[in-house]
């Protein structure tokens, strides 16, 4: 049966996607690039340096900066992001998330974090959710980021189960591709048009329960 649920963080466990967007918007404006919410969809699930690269490409400025300058920009963005998330408390977990985690624990289903963010452990601490996680995949330990399946495969490997025994939960298109390419069952949170490649799309975490997760897995393994 289903043994493991691997969670994305930003946009699934907490509404931090808006803080990533604000921090990138601030950085972009300083270098004369305008980004909007629609473009931001393409940054979801994508690593810090890769996100910067996409913003620079949008403004056709990729070759105007050295690697050192790019690293400084990424650091500045992260500094602002860390400032913005300081106000996060356990109240800021998205609806049902603490309940779902507790219910999965009760059912002895293992829980992993498969986030591209290097701030994952900090955020889980701010949210008071660290204790629920049996593993946090270090995004620097995998070579290829989402949409490659590596981070989800690493999660199943660390928890000692087959990919087919896992469900992944994502809000990003790139993340859903990663889950599906890993051979896992994908539940997406968000817009059904963006996320049609998932096995099931829920419009928000309000609809997420451990029973729904188990049912979607079973549907996929009949
Ligand atoms: C992903 C976010 O979870 O993590 C992206 O969806 C973000 O927006 C990426 O760029 C990397 O995060 P961080 O915190 O390491 O810059
Ligand atoms: Mg996300």
Automatic annotation (TrEMBL):
<dbReference type="GO" id="GO:0005975">
    <property type="term" value="P:carbohydrate metabolic process"/>
</dbReference>
<dbReference type="InterPro" id="IPR006439">
    <property type="entry name" value="HAD-SF_hydro_IA"/>
</dbReference>
<dbReference type="InterPro" id="IPR023214">
    <property type="entry name" value="HAD_sf"/>
</dbReference>
<keyword id="KW-0597">Phosphoprotein</keyword>
<feature type="site" description="Important for catalytic activity and assists the phosphoryl transfer reaction to Asp8 by balancing charge and orienting the reacting groups">
    <location>
        <position position="115"/>
    </location>
</feature>
<feature type="binding site">
    <location>
        <position position="51"/>
    </location>
    <ligand>
        <name>substrate</name>
    </ligand>
</feature>
<feature type="binding site">
    <location>
        <position position="171"/>
    </location>
    <ligand>
        <name>Mg(2+)</name>
    </ligand>
</feature>
<feature type="binding site">
    <location>
        <position position="8"/>
    </location>
    <ligand>
        <name>Mg(2+)</name>
    </ligand>
</feature>
<feature type="binding site">
    <location>
        <position position="10"/>
    </location>
    <ligand>
        <name>Mg(2+)</name>
    </ligand>
</feature>
<feature type="binding site">
    <location>
        <begin position="43"/>
        <end position="48"/>
    </location>
    <ligand>
        <name>substrate</name>
    </ligand>
</feature>
<dbReference type="InterPro" id="IPR023198">
    <property type="entry name" value="PGP-like_dom2"/>
</dbReference>
<dbReference type="GO" id="GO:0008801">
    <property type="term" value="F:beta-phosphoglucomutase activity"/>
</dbReference>
<feature type="active site" description="Nucleophile">
    <location>
        <position position="8"/>
    </location>
</feature>
<feature type="binding site">
    <location>
        <position position="146"/>
    </location>
    <ligand>
        <name>substrate</name>
    </ligand>
</feature>
<feature type="binding site">
    <location>
        <position position="77"/>
    </location>
    <ligand>
        <name>substrate</name>
    </ligand>
</feature>
<dbReference type="GO" id="GO:0000287">
    <property type="term" value="F:magnesium ion binding"/>
</dbReference>
<feature type="binding site">
    <location>
        <begin position="115"/>
        <end position="119"/>
    </location>
    <ligand>
        <name>substrate</name>
    </ligand>
</feature>
<dbReference type="InterPro" id="IPR036412">
    <property type="entry name" value="HAD-like_sf"/>
</dbReference>
<keyword id="KW-0413">Isomerase</keyword>
<feature type="binding site">
    <location>
        <position position="24"/>
    </location>
    <ligand>
        <name>substrate</name>
    </ligand>
</feature>
<dbReference type="GO" id="GO:0005737">
    <property type="term" value="C:cytoplasm"/>
</dbReference>
<comment type="similarity">
    <text>Belongs to the HAD-like hydrolase superfamily. CbbY/CbbZ/Gph/YieH family.</text>
</comment>
<keyword id="KW-0460">Magnesium</keyword>
<feature type="binding site">
    <location>
        <begin position="8"/>
        <end position="10"/>
    </location>
    <ligand>
        <name>substrate</name>
    </ligand>
</feature>
<dbReference type="InterPro" id="IPR010972">
    <property type="entry name" value="Beta-PGM"/>
</dbReference>
<feature type="site" description="Important for catalytic activity and assists the phosphoryl transfer reaction to Asp8 by balancing charge and orienting the reacting groups">
    <location>
        <position position="146"/>
    </location>
</feature>
<keyword id="KW-0119">Carbohydrate metabolism</keyword>
<keyword id="KW-0963">Cytoplasm</keyword>
<feature type="binding site">
    <location>
        <position position="170"/>
    </location>
    <ligand>
        <name>Mg(2+)</name>
    </ligand>
</feature>
<protein>
    <recommendedName>
        <fullName>Beta-phosphoglucomutase</fullName>
        <ecNumber>5.4.2.6</ecNumber>
    </recommendedName>
</protein>
<dbReference type="Pfam" id="PF00702">
    <property type="entry name" value="Hydrolase"/>
</dbReference>
<dbReference type="InterPro" id="IPR051600">
    <property type="entry name" value="Beta-PGM-like"/>
</dbReference>
<feature type="active site" description="Proton donor/acceptor">
    <location>
        <position position="10"/>
    </location>
</feature>
<dbReference type="InterPro" id="IPR010976">
    <property type="entry name" value="B-phosphoglucomutase_hydrolase"/>
</dbReference>
<keyword id="KW-0479">Metal-binding</keyword>
